[in-house]
Amino acid sequence: MARGSSASSRFDDSHADVSEGLPSAAAKLLHYPVHAKTTPAWGISLLLAAGGTALISGVLLLVAANVLLHPGAWRWGFATTIAGEGLLIAGLAAMATRLWRNSRRVNTQLDGIDRRLVEVQSTLTHAGTTGSLRSALRRLPPLAA
């Protein structure tokens, strides 16, 4: 494309020499990792709610067993309390795993943004003019959705 040959040109005349190295650098930026869809957290919330409910119910049964001196209430209260604690531990472990995966996904996205900022910075250092930010950003390829 000749300099200034058409009004719809993506490159302005003052920075045409800088744009020669951009296509190869821009091609590297187009290969962002594809992220899997995040699953809803309703299962973890349900697990935590069931665990909390079982723990509170078990503790109430243990209190009732001590007040009423009823051995059957003691056995059910103890079992329900242990089951509630197990559900809470499983829910907290699942939540920690989910937070860890989301943290890794966000870090990957931030790495892509960091690479893009380095590319913009290198474009600006090569341009060397004051009004080149807008033109440098126009020369970069659009972000992949």
What does this structure look like?
The protein is mostly helical and 145 residues long. The chain is 69% helix and 0% strand. The chain is built from 4 helices and no strands. Helix 3 packs across helix 4. Residues 1-12 have low confidence and may be disordered.
Alpha-carbon Rg, integer: 30 Å
Overall pLDDT confidence: 76
What is the global morphology? rod-shaped
Q: How does the helix and strand content classify structurally?
A: mainly alpha
Largest sheet descriptor? none
In helices, the fraction of residues equals 55-70%
Order of helical and strand elements: HHHH
Q: State the total count of DSSP E strands.
A: 0
Concise structural overview:
By secondary structure, the protein is mostly helical. 69% of the residues lie in helices and 0% in strands.
Task: For this entry, give a set of tags.
145 residues, 69% helix, mainly alpha, disordered N terminus
What's the layout of helices and strands?
Elements lengths: L21 H8 L12 H27 L2 H57 L4 H8 L6
Helix pairs in contact: 1-3, 2-3, 3-4
